[in-house]
């Protein structure tokens, strides 16, 4: 880390004991980023740590990025997010398998949806009531899950940014987001009027 007492400064700004948090390095990501995980855990990507060690991030930027993550925990909504993730797990698993299949055989990009749609139509026409309901629920989930998950995570990002701004990290957060705008680190810009 850059040569300053990150922990002391974080405690001063947030009023929370950093010993309650666990920091991990998440090596597999090439984006300089930080993540909030369950159980008061905060993951810092290898790229983020490299930037810190190379003094390519200012003290304010590092503090802002981590305070944003602390904000995810402080809101208490992380537990609800975890529940949502579990509920949507069948959806994300299927989406992952479809992506992998398409990467493996590119022609599946058209064939797979066509086959699924055909199967859906056949089941709707000839299946039992239970099967029909299941097909309809699957179609609803296909549309609703990504939309709801996107809306929820954007809401969470806004409130974590708000937390950082409320805890003296406004300028650091803005310059951090500006520097990594092209990487889509955050879902939005923090308004320049925010303190
Ligand atoms: Zn966040």
From TrEMBL:
Gene Ontology annotations of biological process type: proteolysis
Superkingdom assignment: Bacteria
UniProt cofactor(s): Zn(2+)
An annotated Gene Ontology molecular function: metal ion binding
Segments forming domain Peptidase M48: 7-166
Annotated InterPro entries: Peptidase_M48
Membrane-traversing stretches: 77-98, 110-127, 133-152
Signal peptide residues on this chain, from the entry's feature table: none
Cofactor binding description: Binds 1 zinc ion per subunit.
Keywords per UniProt: Hydrolase, Membrane, Metal-binding, Metalloprotease, Protease, Transmembrane, Transmembrane helix, Zinc
Family listed: Belongs to the peptidase M48 family.
Name of the protein this chain belongs to: Peptidase M48 domain-containing protein
Source species: Luteipulveratus halotolerans
